[in-house]
Amino acid sequence: MKKLLFIISFLILSVSIHAQQLQTRMWDSELLTLIKSQISKGNPLYTESWQKLQKEADKWLSKPDPTIVNKPMAPASGDRHDYLSLGKYWWPNPNTPDGLPYIRKDGKTNPEIEKFDRKTLGEFVDGTVKLTLAYYYSDKKEYADKAVSMIKTWYLDPKTMQNPNMNFGQAVPGVTDNKGRPEGMIDASGFIYVTDAIEILHTRGQLTDKELDELKKWFSEFCNWMTTNTLGIKEGLAANNHSMAYDVQLTRYSLFTGDLVTAKRVLNEYTPKRLIPQIEADGKQPLELARVTSFHYSIANLGHMMDMCDMGKQMGILLYSTGQKKGSIDMAIQYLIPYINNESKFPYKDETKNWKSEAGTMVNLIYRASFYNPEMNKKYLEIYDNLKENDYLFRLTYLRL
Questions:
Q1: For the chain, domain boundaries
Q2: Which pTM value belongs to this model?
Q3: pLDDT per residue as tens digits for the range 272-291
Q4: Which of 18, 168, 303, 311 has its CA 20 to 30 A from that of 368?
């Protein structure tokens, strides 16, 4: 009898432990667990970053939940639940009385974009991520309650939710006939981190199974829009960073909804479909280097690649490649390393305003890449140690002991 009770207790404990295992994809679940343990022990490697996160999360506790229904005007559909944003680099035409059609100024952001949903979406992602991580590392329920409230406001509440489409993303007055553009899909990139936040909150019992099913339904409909709507299809056909970001989103949302067939297909097609066409044998990314802010876009594209590598690794699909050949992510990294602290030596036109900030992002990517290339591991870690910025969120989601 005692043996039977022991077996039952062991099974219950095993189920309980399994239920607590995180199902994150953008962040390494085992690393998050380790960081949580180190924070509780007061490890100085994370102390300052943890204190910063708490302060940032605290700010969100008293803020209203972000929602897209409060924008100053509805899109052409007449439905304020449809996401609406303006093309980032499009400006009023100075040669026409009404400013139409807008004209493109690559690299120069039109402040009008903040009037609509792009800024609100960014705030939603920022708040949800910080609150969820603060909750996970502290177990303070007030953080979880606010994060859950924001998620339900954005995706589930009929009064405030976003419809699962990007039909009016990055519209251009006088150019797109009151419709969005394929490029608008990239505005939703932050949702990849929200899905990780959802997984954490559900695993810890802060979102119910019913709520999780409803959220999966929203993202299933969003994936359907991505793969059947003309705008979504065209974004997937882009030749530059937009297609890279598209694949990251489609893979993450497919994993979240349980569509492993789609996730594996996108991962398996990534090297021939994206990496080889976009990375030259010497590591250059021609389509990103052609941009006015070429350093920024080269780094941003590398970020998409590393996200795909991390998800591919979890699925047993190796995407990170080394050696001087087309499609080598490692070569793309090595090409940019000499310019991290040498802006004046960068051989391409670049109007990046904050080179130091971009370089900091690059250093973080080098750190992540160090674990994929054993031969360069020591060098890459040295670069990170010498040039790292005090990026508290990076430390709390990627920094290993």
A1: 280-401
A2: 0.94
A3: 999 999 999 999 999 999 99
A4: 18
